[in-house]
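Budget justification aside, the reviewers requested a transparent look at the raw inputs and outputs of the sequence design task funded under Objective 1. We therefore reproduce one unedited record. The lines immediately below are the structure tokens for a 307-residue chain.
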């Protein structure tokens, strides 16, 4: 017996040909309404949709998460990318690849928009230049801040303030980063599974679109700009070399990198940008210690509620 999956599609022959060429699966059986593809360890049945597709059904746009995502081992992501584009599908560009637990992976869609993932063995040696994720980038830039601060603190007030923040004590409790939202309704989703083998390193705070997002600390705006997962984001360097991360913003307030902000300053407004499209509006809020990495914001936001 093998692990298997059944994929329902409109054009059985076209989709089966795609997975045969891109994932290297072998056809083992063909019938009028399905084709069976196999590898040494798994079986994929490409089956015709039963009845008419639901009204409005159309190929899905590529996205980070899906209800079910097939994953296939390949020898080379670059070769799989070329084959996918030649057979009616696509694989995300090389810059969207990510590594975990000895493999390298990339998302893609087949000719009918079904989301899948390709994986190959990650043979590249670890290096500082390949750090993936928010903590690595923050550590790199904060290192530059520290080095620059030692030279420029006497010359530039912003650099001097950054230096003071790095060595100030970290807060043991934080106010809510949303105006008019109570901490009583928060849910702790720390380390909950997410697409692409990730874990949730923050907290999602749901609120109506356009709710003001505010800084919970006095600090220095670290960066303002979009990224693939977070959409419109703002990062604030706070006391104790702690970076506060605000994601999925609908739009920005009047903030810019290098600006000093006081606690309560509006940074942006709740939205659904990045990989939050299709979900209820919410703020993804993260707290990162440098060094130390991501911390669970839930205890910090609810500690003041304890008796």
């Amino acid at each position: 017996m093998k692990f298997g999956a059944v994929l329902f599609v409109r054009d059985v022959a076209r989709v089966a040909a795609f997975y045969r060429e891109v994932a290297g699966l072998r056809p083992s059986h063909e019938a009028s309404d399905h084709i069976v593809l196999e590898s040494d360890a798994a079986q994929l049945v490409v089956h015709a949709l039963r009845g008419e597709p639901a009204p409005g059904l159309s190929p899905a746009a590529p996205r980070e998460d899906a209800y079910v995502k097939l994953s296939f081992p390949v020898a080379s992501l670059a070769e799989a990318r070329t084959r996918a584009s030649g057979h009616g599908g696509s694989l995300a560009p090389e810059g969207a690849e990510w590594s975990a637990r000895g493999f390298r992976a990339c998302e893609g869609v087949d000719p009918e928009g079904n989301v899948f993932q390709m994986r190959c063995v990650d043979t590249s040696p670890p290096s500082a230049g390949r750090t993936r994720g928010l903590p690595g980038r923050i550590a790199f830039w904060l290192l530059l801040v520290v080095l620059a601060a030692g030279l420029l603190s006497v010359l530039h007030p912003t650099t001097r303030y950054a230096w003071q923040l790095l060595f100030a004590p970290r807060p043991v409790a934080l106010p809510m980063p949303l105006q008019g939202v109570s901490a009583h309704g928060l849910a702790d989703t720390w380390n909950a599974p997410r697409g692409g083998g990730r874990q949730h390193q923050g907290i999602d705070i749901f609120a109506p679109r356009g709710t003001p997002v505010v800084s919970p600390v006095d600090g220095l705006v670290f960066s303002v700009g979009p990224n693939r997962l977070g959409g419109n984001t703002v990062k604030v360097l706070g006391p104790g070399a702690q970076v506060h991360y605000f994601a999925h913003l609908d739009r920005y307030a009047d903030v810019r990198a290098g600006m000093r902000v006081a606690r309560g300053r509006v940074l942006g407004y709740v939205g659904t940008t990045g990989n939050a499209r299709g979900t209820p509006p919410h703020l993804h809020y993260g707290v990162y210690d440098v060094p130390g990495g991501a911390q669970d914001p839930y205890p910090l936001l609810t500690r003041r509620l304890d008796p």
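The helical segments are 12-23, 77-86, 134-152, 157-167, 297-302. The chain has two domains: 3-121, 134-305. Computational costs for records of this kind are itemized in the attached budget.
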